[in-house]
Structures are given as structure tokens and as C-alpha cells.
Amino acid sequence: MSEQLTETAPVAEGAAVGKTQTPLQRFASDYFESKIAAGALFVLIGIIFIAVFAPWISPQDPYDLSSVSVLDSKMPPGSQHFDGWTFHLGTDGAGRDLLSAIFYGLRISLGVGIVSGVIALIIGAAIGMVAAYFGGWVDTLIMRIVDIQLSFPTILVALILLALLGKGVDKIIIALVIVQWAYYARTVRASALVERGKEYIEAATCLALPQKRIMFRHMFPNCLPPLIVVATLQTASAISLEATLSFLGVGLPVSEPSLGLLISNGFDYMLSGRFWISFYPGIALLITIVSINLVGDQLRDVLNPRLQK
Amino acid sequence: MSDAMLSVNNLTKNFVKRLDVAGKIASKLGSNIREEVVHAVDAVSINIPRGGVVGLVGESGCGKSTLGRMIAGILKPTSGEIVYKGVSITDMSEDEMRKAALQIQMIFQNPFASLNPRMRVEEIIGEAPLIHKMITASEKTEYVCEIMQKVGLDPEYRRRYPHQFSGGQRQRIGIARALAVKPEFLVCDEAIAALDVSIQSQVINLFMDLREDLDLTYLFISHNLSVVEHISDQVVIMYLGRIVEIAETDDLFEEPNHPYTQALLNGIPKLDQRGIDYEPIEGEIPSPLDPPSGCHFHPRCLHAIERCKMERPVLREIAPDRWSACHLNDQA
Amino acid sequence: MTDTPTLEVRNLHTHFFTKAGVAKAVDGVSFTVRKGEVMGLVGESGSGKSVTGFSIIGLVDPPGEVVGGEVLYNGQNLVGLPEEQMRQLRGNRVAMIFQDPMMTLNPVLRVDTQMIETIKAHDPSVNETEAFQRCRDALGQVGIPAPEERLRSYPHQFSGGMRQRVAIAIALLNKPDLIIADEPTTALDVTIQGQILYEAQKLCSETGTSMIWITHDLAVVAGLADRICVMYGGRIVEQGEISAVLDHPVHPYTRGLLGSVPGHGTRGKRLFQIPGMAPSLLNLPKGCAFKARCPRADDECIVEPEITTPVPGREIRCCHPHLDPSEEVPA
């Protein structure tokens, strides 16, 4: 019997494995190998920070009509407010400090993007798991619905929905959820099908574990990697879609301007030389989406080969 | 016969690739596309005695893994019955079926895919006994440590994840997981095929020790005849879904009866044969989608006669404890 | 014996520079393969046997690199040879067969296209008809029935065993002097493996091609090879003529390995087991790589053993070899 125990001894001395290394720690060390992705992650964290703390860090509350004066409108970046502080990015047509407007706008854009993403993920993932686990006609039915949904261009669907639903933050979120859930369902289903064939799921069946437990405790956590990647990239896509809709004038009401609306508002002034009113919100949107995409790319590279181990 | 721990009677498993809507339309319009049926396991009957080790041998497409999975409860048979401790599984109540399922456990081939990569070893081993109320939450740690020691793993490492262990150690974790539910019957599906030679010997010894200590019965599925010769009491040879020969290990290796068994034994390289002239069997293993008629082996058999092409040979007892499915035995 | 051996490997070192450290996959390997000889290169996973094969033919990809030693093919050193010259040798004079035949075969090209391409890459003057003939003959040589039809098929239309035969046929097309086979039959069924081994044996004796057969299966090597090299931890621990090594192993690892193989003689008994596990190549212990698992190890083994010749024709790296010929292999 003692011969069997010695099989474990060399792990402690020779192996490259040290203390318990959770999958999370392993993932983190792989992720930070790319300097670009690490940079993008920090930028993204900065953006989220700004969005969350906007009311506290903005020089001005752009929706407080008392602090905004039409006399300040269309002033170029660097000009002075009569109270002494600087409009770092200038002001827009109504006299609002552009920097503050961008901070608040990020809040809305990110908020709508993330909330709709999360809801779509929950709905889509549940549907995808059910389709994969049960197979047969359940799977066929669900996947045909998904296919139909995905064959329509997202902007078209969103426009139609918003025409029916009207304006408002909640309406936009509903529209974005309806447009996105199918991607999540398809991704999760594909991943779950792969996992279902693996022997550890067979083992769980052999151990007579309840079906629900096998689905959610065993299959689902292993479907997370591709799901995380899709979620990240979809969020960027949702933010972009919302901006487009706002730019077109449907979607969010004027009282809650997202970056898209800011860009739209400033569009009239582009040719007259007051480019900053559209330009800076545009840059903010660009940086947000690019950093999310870079993070998503690195996640995809890091998470996928891992699955082969 | 009556003290068989587990027996299967005429067990069959067919995998059907049904036509989807497009296919159905095509076939109605006259195309000769049709449903594809693979007879993975074709009316197989075996008896496994209590405390015995039965080796199940065959090459790709023979159905041994499918048979193993049906016995372990992972796949549902198409027809036929599985009788465990005298009671047919289909006659059992929910509760009895669950108990039987726990008593028949499986050890898998792939040490990488057979463990949930996101669960700690402690969880992997301790989950099932906890769910089935075999132990309480407070007893879990002690129970897991005990089992880990029994399979030769250091309980210190129970909080680690599978990727931190070697192939041989992962296989031991898989064995521990099976042992945790106190099984009486283990199906080992190529359990050592993916391991290095020196680790294989460790795991083979472990199987033999556990058999004695815990009074286990094994169905040992493998394509490696040397290992089967070492560990089994009785050997079953399968070819394309059917059993071709059953015999006690010594009898089979000394005097194989079925031509396929003979060819199999001739073809394996042996350590003490130097610079031999191989005499391999001709031909490829046929596809299970389109097996030859009559006796599946007839296209590759050196002794095939007309009858072999037309009639499926029956598995008959040709001597005490020896069965073979070959028409040539009838002529003796 | 004055003609140059087909292949002479001298003190080869191949290291992998990973973020976790330097893995010394091949750590001072030397052996010789004569014309028409079959050399069995045996070891378990992590022993460095496959990397040795790749190093010889120059297919080690970054982060791996051949960092030292010489590989003399007919006297010419291949290490450091410019890629263009190496390309002319590869597939032409030195060929390789892999475990997965799909590493050789392109799934989107027909078999005849791929084979003719191989011929033309090294001899552009050959015309189509002649090339086709050679391909057909090569397929016949490896035992593929109806070669003309098979030539027009795609790889996915062949079974696993057939694909491997096609891969072998491609390796043979330009009549190389040396074939390196990396576990070519490991993934195949027993009866198919028997067929491939039969073909390989026939070929070597008929054409005088030298072969290095890399495997972990001692039984395969027993029937096929003339000489054997046993690798452990990136080094060759025992080397010699096949029967001599298998019947009278000198190195404790070889003895342990032979004792671990189950079979007729071990029926019902406990198998000999080498305790512990193979060391990680990132973290090889000081001195003898096998020290931690060796029943005869002591303080002397802290110094890495040099290559010694305790018995004529046998080279080993060991401080405490089993020299008593009457000692039984442990069972």
C-alpha cells in the first residue's frame, strides 16, 4: 500500500504546480500577457468609473437648468466659465459643458448597453442550455426561432420595435434585449453541446445526479468562457446600436442624452467650424467601444485554447 | 448462471440517424436517401459472476464501449434486458433503480475529459455521496480523505483542481469518485489506455488491490490483449456489435477457437518475439453502417465457406464454459 | 564498417524557452543509425523522444530551438543548415511519418495531387505520367488495393489505417535514405497496426532504408527494431542491440519498464511498478533524472552520470547499473 502513496510525493517536489491555482488565477496570468489588452482593460475600468461617479466628478450638472446658460453656448474648448473654471471641451448648443455632458452620456450609454446585455444573456443562456440538454424537437424548435430572429438586420428590428414601443430608457432596453438574446442562445447551445458529449457529464449521469444539477452545476460553468467573450463583444455592439438609434432620433428622449444623441445634436454645427460638439462625444464613444473590443479579443484568445487542456 | 451478479440478455442498441424535414421530402420524391441505422450492439448476452473480472475485447466499431455505457446506465438500450442481482432493471421501482445505478459505476478512458475542470477534487469525489445522502456535510471532508488514501492520492491535495494533476493521478481521482458511492460493480472503459506504461502498471495493481479489499466485480473493456490476459478471469471477444467468442482466459489464449480471435492473437506484437514475420489479417474493419451479411467476419476470414455469407452464426457452447459463434464448429 | 552511417546524432540539445522556464526536452542525446537499420526510440510521455525526431528533421518550432550538438546525415551536419538546403533534404532524402496521418495529408486535395506535388517539389523534370506511375507503385507497395481508384480519392474517404498507409507511401515516394516515424501506429486498431508493421518491416528489408521508430510500446519495438534507445528526462539512459537490451537490461529504468508490461507471464500477480512519476522537463532534478524513483539511488547519483559502456555494444547513463546477467527482470 505504501508504494501507492509515494506516487504523490514527486508532485510536491518536482512539478511546476505550486499552491492551489484556481482557474481564475490561471486565466488572469494569461490575460495580462498582452500589454495592449491590459491597457484596454484599464481604460475600460476608467470609463466605467467615470460613468458610475459622473455626478460627483463632473464640473457641472448639464441637466440642472440653473447652472446652464445659453450665453455660454458654442464656446470652443478651453474657454472660461464666468465662475472661473474651464470648459475643457467647450460647450454645446444649449450652453452645457461638453465634458460633463460626455460623462453623463457615458453613464447612459454604458448603462443601457450593460443592462440590456445582462438581461439578454440570462434569457438567451437559459434557452440555449435547455435546447442543448433536451435535444430533439425542443432543440429544433428553439433553434429555428433563433435562426429566424438572426436573419433580420438588427437595426431594422430595433427601429420597428421602437416605432411600436415609443421613447424611453426602458423601451430601448427591451428592444436591445429582443435583438440580442438570440446570439447568446446560439453560443450557449453550441458550447453546451460540446460539453454534453464530454465524459464528466456522462460520469455525472452515471452517479445518478439530478438533471437540473447536471445542467447548471456541471455543464453551465464550463460553457462560460465563450459566453463571456460573446457578452463582452455584444455589449460593445449594443452600445453602438443604441448610439445609432439615438443619432437617428428614435430611442432615448432628449432629456437623457446618450453619446449618440450628443453626436446628433452637434451634427448641425459640424460644417460651421464648431466641430467639438460632435467630435468629442464621438471620440468618447470610439474609445469605449474599441477598449471593450480589445478586451473581448484577448478574452477570446485566452479562454479558448484553455478548453483544450 | 444463477449467481451471476449482472447479466444482459439479447441487449441491442441501434443508433438511428433520422431524416430531417428536408430528407423526408427528398425521399418521398424518390431519392434513395434513407434513415441510417448503426447496429452498435446486436443482441448480446453475457453473464458476469460475482467477484469476477470479465475482459471485453474488440477493435473500433465492435460496440464494447456502447455495451459498457448501457450497463452503467448512461445509454438506454433499444431492446433486451439488463438483470442486476436477479432483478431486471425495467422491473425495478424508481428507488431500486437509483440504488442499482449507484452500485454500477464506470471508470472512463480520458483522464482529461472525465473530470469537471471547474470543480475541486474534494467536490468531485464528495458531491454524489452528499446528494444521495450517504454522508452528511460535516462528514464529507473525512470521507473524501479516506477514499483518496485508498486510491493512493495524498489528501493534502483535495482542494486542488484537475489540471494540476498528472494523467495517472486524474485517473485515480476518477476511481475515487466511483468508489465514493460504494459500488459493487465497476465498468472500466479503456481505463488505462491513455496512460504511460509505468503508470499503467500502478493503476492495474490498484484495480487488483481494490478488487480484493472491496469485493468488487469488474467488466474490463480494453483493446489491449496483454492487459486483459493479465487481469481477467474470463474474456469476451466482440466484432462489429456481436460476440464472437467467450472463454476462460487461459483457454482463450492457449487455444482460440474463432478465426477472428486467432487472427487477433497472432497479430499482436509480443515482447519476446524478435524480428518476426507478421501475418496480419487482410482487409479493413468494415463500417458499422454497412456490415457484411451473415457472419460479419467472413470477408476477412481465411476459412470462410458459403454458409458464412448467408447465415449469422449463433453463439453456442462448444465446451464447458466456452462459447463461440462460428459455423466451422458445427462441422466438427 | 567503414562507410559513414546514415545518421549520426552527437550530443544533441533542444530547449523550449517558455514563460514558465526553460524545458530541456533533449538533453545530450547521441546515437547512430546505419544503412538499412531500424532504430527504436522508446520512452514515455515527457521523455523527449518526439522532440528528438523533430530536431533531426529540423521541424522544431519556437519557443523550441536546437541549441547544441550535431546531426550528421551522411556526414553533413543538419544543425544550422540554411532552410532552403534543409527543404531540399526533407521529403526527399529524409522523410517523416506522424502519429496523425492528417498531419501529412491535406484534406482538401486529392491524394494524387498531393503525391505528385511531393515528387515534383524535388524533381521538377518528371512528367505527369511518370509521376502518376510512381504514385501508383508507391500505393501498391504499402498494400493499398486498387491503387488507381484510390489515387483519385480524398483523404476523408479513407479509413484511419489506409490514411496512415498513404502517409507512409508519400514518405517513400522519393526513396529517402532515412524515415523518422513518430508513433505511427499508436492510434490504430490492433489488426491494422499489425498490417502497418508488416509493411514497414518488408520495406526496410527490401529497400535498405534506415528507420527511426519512435514509440512507447516496447512490444512493437521488440519485433521491428534492430537497436533500441531508451529515453528518460530528455536523455538516453540505455542503448544497444535489441535482444541484448530486452533480455538483459542494465539500467534500472529499463528494467522497471520491462517489469511493468503485463502479459502471459504476469497473470494474477502484482505488476512491478516504478514508484512516483516522470519529472517535469522544466524542473529536472540535479544529477541523474531517474534518481527520485530508483531503488538503487544514493548520494553518488547527485552527479549526472556520464555515458559508459559497461558491456560491449551497450551504452548507458547510470551510476549503479545491473551488471549481473543472472538477475531476473523484476516481475
How would you sum up this structure, described in words?
The complex is a heterotrimer of chains A (309), B (332) and C (331). With 309 residues, chain A is mostly helical. In chain A, 72% of the residues lie in helices and 1% in strands. Chain A has a single domain (78-306), classed as Orthogonal Bundle (MetI-like fold). The radius of gyration of chain A is 25 Å and the shape is elongated. With 332 residues, chain B is α/β, with parallel strands linked by helices. Chain C has helices spanning 49-57, 83-89, 111-122, 128-141, 147-151, 160-172, 190-207, 218-224, 242-247, 252-260; strands at residues 7-18, 21-33, 38-42, 64-73, 76-77, 94-97, 178-182, 210-215, 227-232, 235-241, 307-308, 315-317. In chain C, a hairpin with a 2-residue loop joins strand 1 (7-18) and strand 2 (21-33). The longest helix of chain C has 18 residues, at 190-207. Chains in contact: A-B, A-C, B-C.
Throw out a few tags for this protein:
heterotrimer; A: 309 residues; mainly alpha; two-stranded antiparallel ribbon; 12 helices; 2 strands; B: 332 residues; alpha/beta; Rossmann fold; four-stranded antiparallel sheet; 12 strands
Percent of residues of chain B in beta strands? 15-25%
Note the quaternary state here.
Answer: heterotrimer
How many strand units of chain C? Answer: 12
- Give the helices and strands of chain C as they follow along the chain: EEEHEEHEHHHHEHEHEEHHEE
Termini Cα gap of chain C: 39 Å
Tell me the helix content of chain B: 25-40%
Secondary-structure element order of chain B, as H and E? EHEEHEEHEHHHEHEHEEHHHEEH
Could you say which overall geometry of chain B the principal axes of the C-alpha atoms support?
Answer: globular
Could you please say which CATH topology of the domain at 1-81 and 219-331 in chain C applies here? Rossmann fold
What overall form of chain C do the CA principal axes indicate?
globular
- Count of runs of 4 or more consecutive helical residues of chain C: 10
Biggest sheet details of chain C? 8 strands, mixed
**What is the residue-mean pLDDT of chain C, rounded to a whole number?**
86
Q: Please state how the strands of the largest beta sheet of chain B are arranged side by side.
A: 6-7-8-3-9-10-12-11
Classify the secondary structure makeup of chain C into a structural class: alpha/beta
The CATH superfamily of the largest domain in chain B appears as P-loop containing nucleotide triphosphate hydrolases
Q: Outline the low-pLDDT stretches of chain C.
A: none
Gyration radius of chain B, in Å: 22 Å
CATH class of the largest domain in chain B: Alpha Beta
Low-confidence stretches of chain B: none
Fraction of residues in helix of chain C: 25-40%
